[in-house]
Structure formats: C-alpha cells, structure tokens
Specification:
Elements: H1 3-17, H2 20-31, H3 36-43, H4 47-59, E1 63-68, E2 71-76, H5 80-95, H6 108-117
Antiparallel strand pairs: 1-2
Helix pairs in contact: 2-5, 3-4, 5-6
Length: 118
C-alpha cells in the first residue's frame, strides 16, 4: 500500500475523532454495542445528532449497523479499534496531562485510562 493511501486512512480516522460527540460515541461503543436511542441518552444529545454522527462514523468505516428486527444496533467495525482508542487516549494523557478534563467531567472509562496512563 502506498504512503498516500496510509495517509488517507489516518486522515479518515482523524476526521472521525475531530468531533467530541463522535469521539464519545466511539468510546461508548468501545464498551458495548448499542442502539442509537440508548447512545443519545448516554451522551445527552438528540437522537438526530447521534444519527448524523453514526452516519459519519459508518462512512469512515469505524462502526457498522447490525439490524435487529425493527431496530438497528451499532458496534465498532473491528474490536481492535476499541484497544486502539484506549491506547491513543492513554498516550495523549501521558504526553499532555494538561489536556485532561477535570475529574468531575471524566466518565468512568476515561478515569480508568487516565489511571493506567498516570
């Protein structure tokens, strides 16, 4: 694979992570697959917002939709993404601890990663 193609792949991943809501969706899906309504409730955003961001993440190839009767469940396209997200978060917090939100703003997942990084 050419260097340009690798760059395009990483740029697509970077685009997915460039929005805080998309990043939070990926972190939530790292823990477990979920339905859009549940993700909206978890993140405290509208269902339309979740739907738009899930469409972007599908377009980036990072999540897949799994039909379940009349509903659709979303999950990471590859479980290795969950590990990669944890590693990336840990690295960022190690390199620049000042970028971490205050303890009150951290969710359980981030707190655990921060403890590993720290």
């Amino acid at each position: 694979m050419e260097t340009i193609a690798y760059g395009q792949v990483l740029a697509r991943f970077g685009h997915a992570l460039s929005d805080p809501t998309r990043a939070r969706l990926l972190l939530a899906l790292r823990e477990a697959s979920a339905h859009p309504a549940d993700l909206a409730d978890l993140l405290g955003v509208s269902r339309q917002t979740v739907s738009n961001h899930l469409a972007c993440l599908r377009g980036c190839g990072l999540v897949v939709a799994v039909p379940q009767g009349r509903r659709t469940r979303y999950e990471l396209a590859d479980q290795r993404l969950g590990h990669a997200l944890g590693d990336l978060l840990s690295l960022v917090l190690t390199v620049d601890p000042a970028c971490a939100p205050g303890e009150a703003d951290l969710d359980v997942d981030t707190r655990e990663v921060r403890e590993v990084a720290g």
